Amino acid sequence: MNPGCFVRIAGACLLALIICSCETFPEGPFPRATEVGWWNDDGASGPARIVVHIGEQKAYFYKGKRLVGESTVSTGKPGFSTPPGSYSVLSKSPDHVSTIFGDYVDDYGNVVRSNIDARKDRRPSGTHFDGAQMPYAMFFRGGYAMHQGYVPPFAASHGCIRLPKGMAGRFYENAPVGTPVKVTE
Fold first, then answer.
1. Three-class SS string for the chain?
2. Which residues make beta-bridge pairs with 97?
3. Which residues fall within 8 angstroms of residue 167, CB to CB, at 6 or more apart?
4. 38-73 pLDDT tens trace
5. Are 31 and 14 a contacting pair, CB within 8 Å?
6. pTM of this prediction?
7. Which among 119, 78, 80 has a CA at the least distance from the CA of 98?
C-alpha cells in the first residue's frame, strides 16, 4: 500500500472514531458523577448523615433518606488507617491548621522536610514547623477529621478523610455538629 493511501485511510478511521464515539447520556435527577463528585440537594430535607466507604474511597452525603452528594476521598494510608465505626461530627473549624502534621521549613519558606509527624520526626536545625492546612475540618473522633486536602485515587492520609476542594465546603456547610458519620470498610 502506498504511504499516501495509508495516511488517508488512517485519517478517515480516526475521524469516524471521533464522530461515532460521541454519546448522548440520558437525563437523570442527579448530575453524573465526576472524578471529584456531585451535589444536588434541591428540595431535599431531613437530617444530614455521611457514609464513608474506605474500599471505594468515596463519601456519600444524605439528607433524610435522599442521597444528595457523592465525593471521592482519600482515607488513611497503611500504618495510619482511618478507623471504621459509627461517629458524629464533634466540632468544626473552617480554617483549621494541624499541630501535628506538616512540614519543617527554613526562614525563607523553603521546605526542608515535608509531610512530617511533629511527634516523631526531629526538627532539623534552623527550621520551624509549618502545620498542614485543613480547611473545612469536621472532627468526628479525637484527632480524626474530614477536611479539604489532596485526594489521589488511593488512601494517602494520616488517618483523616480528605475531600477535594470542590466538595469539602458542601459537606461542611450541610453537616451541623452532631451529624452522624459512618465509616465502613
1. CCHHHHHHHHHHHHHHHHHHHCCCCCCCCCCCCCCCEEECCCCCCCCEEEEEECCCCEEEEEECCEEEEEEECECECCCCCCCCEEEECCEEEEEEEEEEEEEEECCCCCEEEEEEECCCCCCCCCCEEEEEEEEEEEEEECCEEEEECCCCCCCCECCCEEECHHHHHHHHHHCCCCCEEEEEC
2. 133
3. 36, 37, 39, 59, 69, 71, 72
4. 999 999 999 999 999 999 999 999 999 999 999 999
5. no
6. 0.78
7. 119
Cα 161 to Cα 89: distance, rounded to the nearest angstrom: 13
- 137 CB-contact burial (10 Å; exposed 0-12 / middle 13-18 / buried 19+): buried
- Residue located via cell numbers 472532627: 139
End-to-end CA distance of the chain: 57
CA torsion sign, 141 to 66 to 75 to 135? negative
Task: Specify whether the CB–CB gap between 160 and 146 falls below 8 A.
Answer: yes
CATH superfamily of 28-184: L,D-transpeptidase catalytic domain-like (2.40.440.10)
User: Where are the chain's structural domains?
Assistant: 28-184
pLDDT at 1: 57
